[in-house]
Design brief:
417 residues; alpha/beta; seven-stranded mixed β-sheet; three-stranded antiparallel β-sheet; 35% helix; binds pyridoxal-5'-phosphate
């Protein structure tokens, strides 16, 4: 029998010093590169230097013609939506379960986000999407939650059948793929975040991918005015005369951030391989415990393992509430076990229930309420998320987390009453 639970006065299972997980892993090469960049340029107005280098590398990595770096993922999404012609009154089907920045840029374009529920994997449920399509629906946006690719075959077929623009928020899923095809290449365009913990991190930053020349030009006009527009739009393009001002927003990435991302991109595939090994091990070990269901990937699907979303099933532990189970894991020293907070079903957030005090144009357009998206709310409420480590030397820590889960599930009855 395992020892007394730490929450009840016993000794914690995880004793390694904190932090247990940090990201991105910045080695000597990154530090040298950033110092060198400091000497070269800290402000770049055109597509040159590290900006050109990173855009070319991202373009090769994804096999996509155009890449535009941005200051954040939110900016990338905003530019992508604008460039795809989404505007006032357009309905855009978006996941109810995503980080809110997938959707908030639409509110600044006057579009109407139409939330759709997820399936048990936490990604868009194609059946729910279909029933939300109306004559006003213009686009369908997919988020690959926690790095696990959504069901793109079904979603792409729906978009094609209804002539919807398919767009990806690939902010969790750098390097993820379905049958070798990289996430971010399934629709007309894709937006990625590269902020702190993202699989490909710049510290802060983002980018848009597209094979569509017109989308590319308009992404530039939206957030990269003057030099980039003057150099990259063809002189004969009808919008060339706007090149100096573009649409007047500035969403350029910082060159030091671009340099960090360039270094990280060189390591991305090896990070993902390491993560895949440890994720498989964690799923095998934790998925066999009562109360825990581990994610399963269909054949041919590669996740970026931005997070490992475990599903807690209280009915397998006599109804023990997830909050109590989580508290017990935290007390065991599993400081990295997370119950996602701000990444939650959007109908639970005031901005999507009553946006009017902040966004007066939406006086009665968005009136979502708790209970509207049962699947998303169930998935979110039961999720215990772990980071996925990638190095061999992380294994003792991984094993101590597994031991803590065993201990809490073995002794869960001690937590009742
Ligand atoms: C799915 C998703 N979309 C968009 C964003 C916004 O990216 P950024 O923070 O770089 O603006 C995030 C950031 O966490 C995200 O997780």
């Amino acid at each position: 029998m395992t020892s007394t639970l730490a929450l009840l006065g016993g000794t914690p299972a995880v004793t390694a010093p904190e932090p247990h997980f940090t990201w991105p892993p910045l080695g000597e090469s990154a530090k040298h590169a950033v110092l060198a960049q400091l000497e070269q340029a800290v402000s770049i107005y055109d597509r040159s230097g590290v900006i050109e280098h990173l855009e070319n590398e991202l373009s090769d990595y994804h096999g996509v013609m155009h890449v535009v770096l941005t200051s954040s993922g939110t900016a990338a999404l905003h530019s992508m939506y604008m460039a795809c012609g989404i505007g006032p009154g357009d309905q855009v089907i978006v996941p109810a379960y995503t980080f809110f920045a997938t959707v908030t840029p639409l509110l600044h374009l006057g579009a109407v986000p139409v939330l759709a529920d997820c399936d048990e994997t936490g990604t868009l449920d194609p059946k729910d999407v279909t029933q939300r399509i109306t004559p006003q629906t213009k686009a369908l946006v997919v988020t690959h939650m926690w790095g696990r690719p959504a069901d793109m075959a079904s979603l792409k077929a729906i978009a094609e059948e209804h002539s919807l623009t398919l767009l990806e928020d690939a902010s969790h899923a750098h390097g993820a793929a379905i049958d070798g095809r990289r996430i971010g290449t399934f629709g007309r365009a894709a937006a990625f975040s590269m902020n702190g913990p993202k699989p490909l991190s710049a510290g802060e930053g983002g980018f848009v991918l597209t094979d569509d020349d017109e989308v590319y030009y308009r992404v530039l006009l939206h957030g990269q005015y003057n030099k980039r527009c003057r150099n990259e739009l063809p002189d004969a393009h009808p919008l060339y005369r706007y090149a100096v001002t573009g649409m007047g927003l500035k969403f350029r990435i910082h060159p030091l951030a671009a340099r960090i991302a360039l270094d990280q991109l060189g390591h991305l595939d090896s990070y993902l391989e390491g993560r895949a090994t440890i994720a498989t091990y964690l799923c095998e070990q934790l998925g066999q415990l009562p109360g825990i269901t581990a994610p399963e990937l269909p054949p041919g699907v590669r996740s970026s393992w931005y997070g490992l979303p475990l599903c807690y099933c209280s009915n397998e532990l006599d109804g023990l509430p997830v909050a109590r189970f989580y508290d017990a894991l935290q007390a065991e020293g599993c400081r990295e076990v997370d119950r996602p907070g701000s990444t939650c079903p959007l109908n639970l957030l005031p901005l999507f229930q009553e946006p009017e005090p902040l966004l007066p144009a939406y006086n009665d357009e968005l009136t979502y309420a708790p209970g509207d998206f049962p699947a998303a709310e169930a998935v979110h409420g039961g999720t215990l998320k772990l980071p996925v480590w990638h190095r061999e030397e992380d294994m003792p820590l991984v094993d101590s987390y597994i031991e803590a889960f065993h201990k809490v599930t073995d002794r869960y009855r001690d937590l009742q009453g």
